[in-house]
Amino acid sequence: AQSVAQPEDQVNVAEGNPLTVKCTYSVSGNPYLFWYVQYPNRGLQFLLKYITGDNLVKGSYGFEAEFNKSQTSFHLKKPSALVSDSALYFCAVRDIYSNDYKLSFGAGTTVTVRA
Amino acid sequence: SQTIHQWPATLVQPVGSPLSLECTVEGTSNPNLYWYRQAAGRGLQLLFYSVGIGQISSEVPQNLSASRPQDRQFILSSKKLLLSDSGFYLCAWSGQGNQETQYFGPGTRLLVL
């Protein structure tokens, strides 16, 4: 079985401050991990993924995420948030031994960046 | 590059009417295709996925069905809509492989009245 938890429904930060969106996962084997962003009334946009290798993954729009196997976490970070980063963020996981291509998504975290 | 289209963008339908939502992918062949529903702007529920023409896996028993008549076409249907079918429907595609990323279309907003 595979699952993802996003413990915060909402994150509020001031523009220019660091942004962190938390994600923890559970898989039987090892994980493939993904982050997506969704703007209102739009589809999900892919930000970044962890497959293997370097635990620090860099993605689109200045975002990065760190894979921590011991803590089963994959937190999304941005050093300096912009107002335009305000959106809904989803973490997703797939067990590398899964044979059905399905992703398990978290419930989402709403990020609000105030000017 | 690959693109994914969904139509219509919005749809208002009466209860009991039929439904047909279409999704097409360009720029790739033999993709995996997925239908999701998102209620109240939050979590995603996987409804159907397909690894090839005519191959459909259903995740949730309900009054919806899916078909894949062509390699890059995925259709979501219902014979009789329920109020609870209202939501935001998202189509996605991925390559064949466990580490492949799913890429999402722009979505269809369905309101059943």
Tell me the radius of gyration of chain A.
Answer: 14 Å
Order of helix and strand elements from N to C terminus of chain B: EEEEEEEEEEE
Distance between the termini of chain B: 38 Å
This entry's quaternary arrangement is heterodimer
SS element count, helices of chain B: 0
- Count of domains of chain B: 1
Structure description:
The complex is a heterodimer of chains A (115) and B (113). With 115 residues, chain A is mainly beta. Chain A has a single domain (3-114), classed as Immunoglobulin-like. Helices cover 0% and strands 52% of the residues of chain A. Chain A has strands at residues 3-5, 10-14, 19-21, 24-26, 31-38, 44-50, 56-58, 64-68, 73-78, 87-95, 104-105, 109-114. In chain A, β10 and β11 (104-105) form a beta hairpin. Chain A is globular. The N and C termini of chain A lie far apart (41 Å). With 113 residues, chain B is an all-beta fold. Chain B has one domain: Immunoglobulin-like. Chain B is 0% helix and 58% strand. Chain B is built from no helices and 11 strands. In chain B, strands 2, 4, 5, 6, 9, 10 and 11 form a 7-stranded mixed sheet that branches. Chain B starts with a strand and ends with a strand.
Fold blueprint:
The complex is a heterodimer of chains A (115) and B (113).
Chain A: E1 3-5, E2 10-14, E3 19-21, E4 24-26, E5 31-38, E6 44-50, E7 56-58, E8 64-68, E9 73-78, E10 87-95, E11 104-105, E12 109-114
Parallel strand pairs in A: 2-12
Antiparallel strand pairs in A: 1-4, 3-9, 5-6, 5-10, 7-8, 8-9, 10-11, 10-12
Chain B: E1 3-7, E2 10-13, E3 19-26, E4 32-38, E5 44-52, E6 55-58, E7 64-70, E8 73-78, E9 87-94, E10 103-104, E11 108-112
Parallel strand pairs in B: 2-11
Antiparallel strand pairs in B: 1-3, 3-8, 4-5, 4-9, 5-6, 7-8, 9-10, 9-11
Any descriptors?
heterodimer, A: 115 residues, mainly beta, Immunoglobulin-like, six-stranded mixed sheet, four-stranded antiparallel sheet, 12 strands, B: 113 residues, seven-stranded mixed sheet, 11 strands, globular
